[in-house]
Amino acid sequence: MSRRIASPQTSQTKAIAIVAKERKRNFSPWMVMSIVMVVLALGFVAWPVLSVLVGSFAGGGLGGWKEFFGESSYLKAVGNSVLLAAIVTVIATIIGVYLAYFTARFRFWVKAVVAILPITAILVPEVIVTQAWLMVLGNNGVVTRWFYENFDILLPSLYGWRGLILILPLLYYTYVYLGTLAALRGFDAQLEEAAQSLGTSPLMARIKVTFPAIMPAVIANSLLVFTLTLGNFATSTIIGGKVDLLAPLTYKAFLAETGGNPMMQSTLATVSILIVLLVLYVQRSTVGKRKYEMVQGRSWVPMKLRGVSGVVQSIIAAVMLIASTLPMVMVLVIAFTKARGPVMEWGTFSLDNFRNVITRDPQPILNTITFGLMACLIGVCVSIIISVLVVKKKNLLTPLLDYLVMLPLALSGTVLGIGVMTSLGNGPLALAGTTAIMVIVYVIRRLPHGIRNASSSLHAIPDSLEDASISLGVPPFKSFVKVVLPLMVPGIAAATVLTWTTIIAELSASLVVYSAGQETITIKVYNLMGTGLNGQAAAYGVFLLLLAIVPIILARVFKVRLFA
Prior knowledge:
two-stranded antiparallel sheet
């Protein structure tokens, strides 16, 4: 009597059939979650943006557009903003690509430290960076006074175009650095070796083979720098001086129209949105058509730096890294320096700045922690649900949901704050002046960061694990909770840390929606910048650095991968 043995394919087909049957028989909450998330995204993301667009036509006719095209200062601000964004993008791209290539291609002492240092540029809030540069090269800065007192040399003013072009690239080059470094580490070195074996020089091999392969990553991150510069508020306001720029002008229009008809603030915000949408269209039409895949390749074997060329390259990299980490060092030095009002007694160690901050006005620190924890908890929970829906539980609504939740990436903080204030601050909800509106603007502003990190862990989890659990009789939702969710823990931890660090560093959006008594550390530092109390501002900055860096150190200790 012959015995039939089931083939692996037959067993697999039966398992798939069982899984499909179980999915159909058991109620799945994912569609309900999708509907809820879409409704929330429409109410808290799409509605604020729509209110900005509609507000630009307030007052009948063309609304604010007639005044926009009739006033030269508005058109000049748009031109200046686009020009500044283009210059900063070029410089930041050069710095980011160079440091990424230097780190990936060569072997040298303290390489691990050098690879991490650029990340500190995005950990320090821009208002702190701007404050530090003013303390170094401002009209009363350390270096400025030293040159004047010792050599009778008056350095050029940091305010205006000069300061913007110096500071902004150092703020944003890290985005290009991280994207380019990831692309270089995934590059197949055998392609470059093959080009050289055919008689191509090493330099031409890099130009013709390596650079085209990493170019999509470089362009994508360069365009991100462009949009960030276009929406920059703190540095543009503090350093910009008499340079008309779109973000500060939008905020001034908001202050002028508070309680009145928000026509011009909405018009200027709409202009920002249209420019960013144009940039995103360019990105999709250029980068989307250039895609290179590396299959089973091997990465470069780092070379040792040698000779004069190695010394020169090391010096260039060192100058770039020192310039980007200098603000953090200056904040620490000034915070521990004795100050009498605006006068700093250099070389005199003191804890008075911290004592004044803690005893006289600790509320900004408490507000930062309170608002940050609430927004981080809500943001991470929402990020997990949306990531699961978009990556693992796709349905008819998930493409719309994915687009809506990523929309804040295309908005500057000022524009988003105005949209939230216009739509949620008044009307049926009337949240103006409440803690809720502060938390909401934080969640919306930083939600894309949490979703990206939570999604990165989900892409690495095979669907077969969950299907195997279902095939053994465990309901689909319970299978997800017991099988997939535990595997998401590293991604959830990374999303939590990065959501927290970006929330507490937020300024532009919160500056629009906050009320008296709701000042956070960044708002307090921004307000102190005009008083000359640099010591107290630096002390607040140290507290903010601690709140940002301690979670990152803990993540490193527990081997949680950040910036994946």
